Amino acid sequence: MKVKIQDTFWTRYRELVRTEMIPYQWKVLNDEINITIERERNDDSIPNEKSHAIENFRIAAGLKEGNHYGWVFQDSDVYKWLEAVAYSINEHMDEDLKSLADSVVDLIAAAQEEDGYLGTYFTIEEPERKLKRLGESHELYCAGHFLEAAVAYYETTGNDTVLKTACKLADYIVRHFGKEDEKIHGYDGHEEIEIGLAKLYRITGKNEYLSLSKYFLEIRGTNPEFFHIQNAEDGKKPLIVGMDKFPYSYFQNHMPLLEQESAEGHAVRLVYMCTAMADVAAMTKDVNLLNACKKIWRNIVDKRMYITGGIGSTVIGESFTLDYDLPNDTMYCETCASVGLVFLAGRLLENEFVGEYGDIMERALYNTVLAGMALDGRHFFYVNPLEVVPEKGKKDPTKSHVKSVRPEWLGCACCPPNLARLLSSLEKYIYVQKDDSIVANLFVNCESRFSVNKKLVTIKQETEYPWNNRVLFTVSSKEETDFTLGIRIPNWTDKYTIRLNGQDCNIETKQGIAYIRKVFKDDVIEIIFDMKVEIWDAHSSVRNNIDKIAVSRGPIVYCMEGVDNGSNLHLLSIGKNAEFTYQFEKNLLGGVVVIKVNGYEQISNSDRNANLYQKHEKVRGIQEKELTLIPYYAWANRGENEMQVWIRCER
Amino acid sequence: MKVKIQDTFWTRYRELVRTEMIPYQWKVLNDEINITIERERNDDSIPNEKSHAIENFRIAAGLKEGNHYGWVFQDSDVYKWLEAVAYSINEHMDEDLKSLADSVVDLIAAAQEEDGYLGTYFTIEEPERKLKRLGESHELYCAGHFLEAAVAYYETTGNDTVLKTACKLADYIVRHFGKEDEKIHGYDGHEEIEIGLAKLYRITGKNEYLSLSKYFLEIRGTNPEFFHIQNAEDGKKPLIVGMDKFPYSYFQNHMPLLEQESAEGHAVRLVYMCTAMADVAAMTKDVNLLNACKKIWRNIVDKRMYITGGIGSTVIGESFTLDYDLPNDTMYCETCASVGLVFLAGRLLENEFVGEYGDIMERALYNTVLAGMALDGRHFFYVNPLEVVPEKGKKDPTKSHVKSVRPEWLGCACCPPNLARLLSSLEKYIYVQKDDSIVANLFVNCESRFSVNKKLVTIKQETEYPWNNRVLFTVSSKEETDFTLGIRIPNWTDKYTIRLNGQDCNIETKQGIAYIRKVFKDDVIEIIFDMKVEIWDAHSSVRNNIDKIAVSRGPIVYCMEGVDNGSNLHLLSIGKNAEFTYQFEKNLLGGVVVIKVNGYEQISNSDRNANLYQKHEKVRGIQEKELTLIPYYAWANRGENEMQVWIRCER
Question: Closest approach of chain A CAs to the CA of B116, in angstroms?
Answer without folding.
Answer: 39
